[in-house]
Amino acid sequence: QVQLVESGGGQVQAGGSLRLSCAASGRTFSRNAMGWFRQAPGKEREFLAAVLWTGVKTYYADSVKGRFTISRDNAKNTVYLQMNSLKPEDTAIYYCAADDREYSDDLMANYWGQGTQVTVSS
Questions:
Q1: Alpha carbon distances (Å) from 25 to 2, 28, 76, 112
Q2: Given its phi and psi angles, is residue 93 left (phi above 0), alpha (psi -120 to 50 degrees) or beta?
Q3: pLDDT 10s digits, 30-74
Q4: DSSP H or E run through 82
Q5: Whole-number CA gyration radius for the chain
Q6: Which of 35, 61, 73, 75 has the most CB atoms within 10 Å of its CB?
Q7: Are 41 and 58 in contact, with CB atoms under 8 Å apart?
Q8: How confident is the model at residue 95 (pLDDT cuts 50, 70, 90)?
């Protein structure tokens, strides 16, 4: 059974940093794109960042470009999201996602984690 488990969420003051991790189990995703989304109360789920299977090509939403960095460790089957200069509007549940397709040049979220709460206070 495939599982994506996020960790690293919590509460931080504006301007602070957090690093989210997402560990996959049940299959390897070393040949698959992975990414991060978030959902704030009353809002739709929003794409944040994706990293292709090589770990070199990345994509970011404009809202987080320059502040968030996505990376992956294929040996650990894990994807990370380093979040700097956090703002109160970054408060949301953060979800990890993985693509079922191999060697794709974009991210289709076929698998989801359960989410981790990030709260940024002003």
A1: 6, 7, 10, 12
A2: beta
A3: 999 999 999 999 999 999 999 999 989 999 999 999 999 999 999
A4: strand 78-83
A5: 13
A6: 35
A7: no
A8: very high
